[in-house]
Amino acid sequence: MNGKSRINILAGLKVNIILKKDQKTGKLTYGIVKDILTNSSYHPHGIKVRLEDGSVGRVQEILK
């Protein structure tokens, strides 16, 4: 699923995010969504979230 639309993202979902420090390398970080930080309904680079471990980044993939 697409991580660019806020409607697709809910607390508790398993996702891959890209951290700010990893944007150049494209390294993804796996985790479970704790908070949604982006207020707009769409963001071209992905909705910004905070994971349960405290990591903050933009959603690249929503996992099943």
From TrEMBL:
Pfam family, one: DUF2196
InterPro entries registered for this protein in UniProt: DUF2196
Protein name: YwbE family protein
Species of the source: Methanococcus vannielii (strain ATCC 35089 / DSM 1224 / JCM 13029 / OCM 148 / SB)
